[in-house]
Amino acid sequence: MSDCLFCKIVAGQVPAEIVYESGRALAFRDINPQAPTHVLVIPKEHHADANALAQADDGLADEVLKAAHAVAVQEQVAEGGYRVVFNTGAGAGQTVFHVHAHVLGGRDLTWPPG
Ligand code: 5GP
Ligand code: ZN
Question: pLDDT digit string (tens) for 84-114?
Fold first, then answer.
């Protein structure tokens, strides 16, 4: 998708701090972090949202989840606890319509906040 911000990051046309890459997934730091670790994990292939990713070809959603886990290990939040969030649709606050998992960690993320 030529006008998609995250496709441009995949293509190297928009800079990003890449922290992890696998064959079909890419992870980079969120530009406006909400936690000490705030990484976005995307499939390199364009799918608008989690609905589309769930219906994509075999293994793509799996690879995105595995990449999120690899990021959590790399960022040393896998043991302490982290959150993986797919905002799905404008009503849920999705603003970039290239599916992305937010990987958040490094602070207290218990819910509801204590
Ligand atoms: P959403 O609201 O769609 O779930 O999340 C979009 C996320 O993308 C936001 O957390 C926002 O800070 C992040 N974001 C928006 N533009 C850019 C950008 O150009 N680079 C990076 N690294 N993150 C971005
Ligand atoms: Zn895209």
Answer: 999 999 999 999 999 999 999 999 999 887 6
Return the CATH number at 61.
3.30.428.10
- Residue 42 identity (one-letter amino acid): I
Q: Determine, yes or no, domain membership for 65.
A: yes
List, for residues 21-69, the tens digit of each pLDDT value. 999 999 999 999 999 999 999 999 999 999 999 999 989 999 999 999 9
- Report residue 2: phi and psi, to 5°: -70, -25
Q: What residues flank ligand 1, with Cβ below 6 Å?
A: 5, 14, 16, 28-32, 40, 87, 93-96
Contact assessment for residue 64 and residue 42, using Cβ atoms and an 8 Å cutoff: yes
14 alpha carbon, closest ligand: 1
Ion ligand 2 nearby residues (CB, 5 A):
1, 4, 6-7, 46, 98
